[in-house]
Amino acid sequence: TMAHSEALLVLENFIGGRFVPCSSYIDSYNPSTGDVYCRVPDSGKEEVEAAVKAAKAAFPVWSSKSLLERSQILNKLADLIECDLEAFAQAESKDQGKTITFAKTVDIPRAVYNFRFFASSILHHTTECTEMASMGCVHYTSRAPVGVAGLISPWNLPLYLLTWKIAPAIACGNTVVAKPSEMTSVTAWMMCKLLEKAGVPHGVVNVVFGTGTKAGEALVCHPDVPLISFTGSTLTAQRITEKSAPHCKRLSLELGGKNPAIIFDDADLTQCIPTTLRSSFANQGEICLCTSRIFVQRGIYSEFLKRFVAEAKKWKVGNPSDPTVNVGALISKEHLEKVRSYVKKAQAEGARVLCGEGVDSLALPTGNQKGYFMLPTVIAEVKDESCCMQEEIFGPVTCVVAFDTEEEVIKRANSVKYGLAATVWSSNVGRVHRVAQRLQSGLVWTNCWLVRDLNLPFGGMKASGIGREGAKDSYEFFTEVKTITIKH
Ligand code: NAD
């Protein structure tokens, strides 16, 4: 159904500094109402070809600008996005289903910070130099931008994750062709409107909208795009790896997770419970870093469960623009069905659903009856082998299980194909170090969650990804290094 009161928002591709219409479009839904409210270009080879051409043409001038000039432009862009923070947050919420509060406090401020961070960090890298006195030689390394970078991002943190790629890519002197998720394209399009004013030359940032299989693959297969930075699912990453293999492309892959929280009986539950609720249900559980397996030591298992479930029931689900709401809508009808199906499977296997889906009733405001909402759901007594404990659900569903020993819980926490993020809760310093060292996880947060220093590496091991992003890591990914030897 179409929204009657408002005109449809129609997006256009941004190529060579100009907005260009497309010959066909995809419907985009407002997840909190179920209405089609926006049309997104359904780009393919032709549009990608034009965007790559524009990016190639812009490369010589952009890559030869001084670091300071590029840094100033990135800072200007950050300022312009920040000026429109409210409008960006509202758009992100409408497009994605997340609450306006979350978009206003997490997504958009982080998008602004991504540009500021790389505007600054790019000025401070140094290269290496060694001396080989006996040969009369010095060696040094030199780094240069690679060329046209292909950037592909998912729907859960749309502008946040896209700018986390655009900022380092252009700060290093590359030009880019970006393809946001077809389900959440609006804020990327809004950002394009600010590029000229920020001083970003035409063709440095091109955005092509469309689906993964058409626009995404055209970008991945384009011979003039030597590197692809991708954030999304493990399945898509396999496809991208296959498609890019004939071109030997450089890939950075940030993928899914099945993140454990390990809670020892000496944990401070007054900190642990609210943080573990956030780590399970923030952004509707649609964050790659969200906790979905909670291991609680037997001595505090029943107390933890009681308090955790009581608090989970307080999370309010509903209209994303209501400031008292904690949980907005899931991204799509299909995704909601998929997340619900996991709860059904758990029940069929004999697990207990303690609150949420199928247990409590969800009352929605009149305007949101057709939205894709779901209550925060806690499942207990689920086996480690269950799909609910093995597969990424990516919704407001978390499983709680008991454990006895440190040795046992490390083994169980590591017994999934993923390895993105973990949290460890204990007041024993020795134990948190020991456990953190042994977890197969790219990120380990002890006694906290989602506290990030962008200077340090971000990314996953095992099926959670290849490569890392961060000040130094993104700089290395987005530049080509050369070793030069001088003999005197
Ligand atoms: P997805 O893999 O379906 O899509 C991601 C992007 O890839 C979209 O832009 C999509 O259009 C594009 N795409 C799809 N098929 C493609 C193909 N064949 N070729 C090229 N591009 C293609 O993922 P999603 O459902 O949008 O996002 C959710 C997933 O992302 C979850 O698995 C989540 O864990 C993961 N994620 C990971 C991180 C991280 O940093 N590790 C962050 C956020 C999300």
UniProtKB/TrEMBL annotation:
Chief localization: cytoplasm
Ranges where the Aldehyde dehydrogenase domain occurs: 24-484
Alphabetic keyword roster? Cytoplasm, NAD, Oxidoreductase
Q: Name the Gene Ontology molecular function terms of this record.
A: aminomuconate-semialdehyde dehydrogenase activity; retinal dehydrogenase (NAD+) activity
Q: Does the keyword RNA-binding apply?
A: no
InterPro entries from the UniProt entry:
Ald_DH/histidinol_DH, Ald_DH_C, Ald_DH_CS_CYS, Ald_DH_CS_GLU, Ald_DH_N, Aldehyde_DH_dom
Q: Which Pfam families match?
A: Aldedh
Q: Which Gene3D superfamilies match?
A: Aldehyde Dehydrogenase, Chain A, domain 1 (3.40.605.10), Aldehyde Dehydrogenase, Chain A, domain 2 (3.40.309.10)
Q: Domain of life, per the record?
A: Eukaryota
Q: Would you name any one GO CC term?
A: cytoplasm
| SUPFAM superfamilies, per database record | ALDH-like (SSF53720)
Catalytic activity, per the record?
2-aminomuconate 6-semialdehyde + NAD(+) + H2O = (2Z,4E)-2-aminomuconate + NADH + 2 H(+)
| Tagged with keyword DNA damage | no
Q: Where in the cell is it found?
A: Cytoplasm
- Please give the PANTHER family that the UniProt record associates with this protein: 2-AMINOMUCONIC SEMIALDEHYDE DEHYDROGENASE
Record function comment: Catalyzes the NAD-dependent oxidation of 2-aminomuconic semialdehyde of the kynurenine metabolic pathway in L-tryptophan degradation.
Recorded protein name is 2-aminomuconic semialdehyde dehydrogenase
This protein's species is: Pandion haliaetus
Q: Which gene encodes it?
A: Aldh8a1
